[in-house]
Each structure stands twice: as C-alpha cells, then as structure tokens.
Design goal:
Layout (H helix, E strand, L loop, with lengths): L18 E3 L4 E2 H19 L4 E5 L9 E3 L12 E6 L2 E6 L4 H9 L2 E6 L12 E7 L5 H17 L5 E4 L5 E6 L5 H18 L4 E2 L11 E4 L9 E2 L15 E2 L1 H5 L13 H8 L21
Helix pairs in contact: 1-2, 3-4
C-alpha cells in the first residue's frame, strides 16, 4: 500500500553536478531546480497526461532515448496509466505532482512529451495541436504561417493559443471540450488543407523532408492516439536549454518572440513578468465545428 503522499520523502537528485548541456555548462541539478521552480505553472497543463520522457544520461551531446514504459525501476508511489499498444500495454508515467516531476528530472529527463488527452479519458483529447515545423530558421515565413493559421481558427470562432516549440517552430493549440480523436484529426486535416490552399508556396502536409521543397510542414499528426507534443514549460534538448513556453500573438506580430526565445535561465524572469499565459486555457475549451471540406 502506498503511504500517504504527505509522508513521502522528497526526491533526492543524484549526481546534480552532471553536465547535461555541455555548451552552456547546465547541470542536472539546474534542470531539476528548473522543474521544481515551474511546477506550479506547469503541472496544470500536464497533470493526468501520459508522459514520454526524453532522457539524456550522458547529456545532450550524446544520443538520448525516449521512454514511455515504466514497468521496471520506478517507485511504487509514481502514478501510471496503462494504455493499449499492439500486442500488449504500456505503463506510462504521469506527472501529477511536483514530486513526480522531480523523479523524472532525476532520470536525466530533459523534455516531457505528453498526450493531448488526460486520464481517465485517454480517447478524448482536450487539445487540437498544429505543429509548424519549418525546414530552416527563417522567422518571416514562420510568422506568416502562424498568423494565417490563427486567422483561420478565429474566423470559426475558435480560441487559438500559441507557444514556442523550443525547437524550430510554433505550436498552435485549440482547447477543446473532450472530443474523440477521430473528430479532432479530421478537423485538423481540414484546417491544414485550407491553410495550404491559401499559402501553397509556404506550407505543406508532406511528411518527407525531401518532398517539402523548403516549405513549412504543418504537422497535424499530434492529433492521434499515442502521439505526443512537447509539454508547456518543458526544456528542449538544444544548446541554451530553450523552453517551450506560451507567448502572445501580439509578441509574434511585433517579432518579439521566436521559437527559442525563452530558456531555462530566463523563464523565471518571464514568469515574473507575465505569469502563466495559459492559466485559463482549460476553461476555454470549445466544441469543434464541422471541419472545412478537403478538396
């Protein structure tokens, strides 16, 4: 029997001096301290979402790996979600509290990738995600595509929230009342097709990089069971330890924010200045309209 949570000892961070970001001297201890500091704003966005941990035991300069199954080597108190896979099940960890987040940091987890649905309604996402993935770091076309996508969604009366990816692009999110994955995927496909119709030389749905012709990939594959998206406020495994953080459309319009603007070392000042820009996101959930016709 799991002891009462109040009696559980805090997670000890082993080898906090281990350097995880060699170009910046950022240690495992700093990563763990970051996740402890942002837990209050991060947890509402990830609580009860199945997590895939992106772990770097030798730092981001070496090859890391993704772990979603915690059948072995996890503490008894860690909450999990058992979900089906082909030929069996997966025991996903859940980051439902600050202690769980610290345990993940102690596993050399840099990035938390999460489902768009929450337990126990794993088949009913509460987010529709559009991941804009440019071929090159070119802020002008990326900004144009993001704002055009926002306009398409807002024209349908849908709230469109945005965050930096911490990598190359932006994540545009529509908060939902729980909706079956199939309906969300069809809606995302229809919106993406309309965006491509408006900006055919700028965006594409071609998955293979060789077929994109330098255009921005509109990744709507996040809207299917088992797919994940980088969590709000998670660190990304790139030099500088950029963070995937909510921003405003006005900041994008005036070119004040790019995909890697916010970092582990600047997020404290950012949160002091603006707070959690997504704090009301869950309360803004909508019912999706019929998707636009795909031509």
């Amino acid at each position: 029997m799991t002891p009462p949570r109040a009696r559980l000892a805090p997670v000890a961070i082993t080898h906090p001096e281990k350097v995880l970001f060699p170009d910046d001297g950022i240690t495992k201890g700093e990563v763990a301290a970051y996740y402890a500091a942002v837990a209050a704003v991060m947890l509402p966005h990830i609580r009860r979402r199945p997590v895939t941990m992106e772990r770097f035991p030798s730092g981001i300069g070496a090859k890391g790996f993704l772990q979603k199954n915690v059948v072995k080597g996890f503490p008894e108190w860690l909450e999990r979600a058992e979900l089906p896979k082909k030929g069996g099940t997966v025991q996903y960890p859940l980051a439902n509290d600050a202690r769980s987040l610290q345990w993940m940091a102690n596993q050399n987890t840099v990035t938390l990738h999460v489902w768009t649905s929450r337990m126990p309604e794993a088949s009913q996402p509460d987010l529709c995600v559009f991941d804009l993935d440019p071929a090159e770091d070119d802020p002008g076309p990326l900004r144009t595509a993001a704002l055009a996508l926002r306009d398409l969604l807002e024209a349908r009366g849908l709230p469109a929230a945005v965050k930096t990816s911490g990598s190359k692009g932006f994540h545009i999110v529509v908060p939902l009342k729980r909706t079956p994955f199939g309906a969300v995927a069809r809606f995302a496909a229809g919106i993406a097709a309309e965006l491509i119709e408006r900006l055919p030389d700028l965006v594409t749905l071609e998955f293979a990089k060789a077929d994109r012709g330098g255009r921005i990939f509109v990744d709507i594959g996040r809207n299917r069971p088992g797919a994940t998206v980088a969590a709000a406020y998670t660190i990304r495994a790139r030099p500088g330890a950029p963070v995937s953080a909510p921003c405003t459309w006005e900041e994008i319009e005036r070119r004040a924010v790019g995909p890697r603007t916010f970092t582990l070392r600047t997020m404290a000042a950012r949160l002091d200045a603006v707070g959690d820009l997504w704090q009301d996101l869950a309360r803004r959930g909508v019912t999706l309209p019929e998707p636009p016709a795909v031509r």
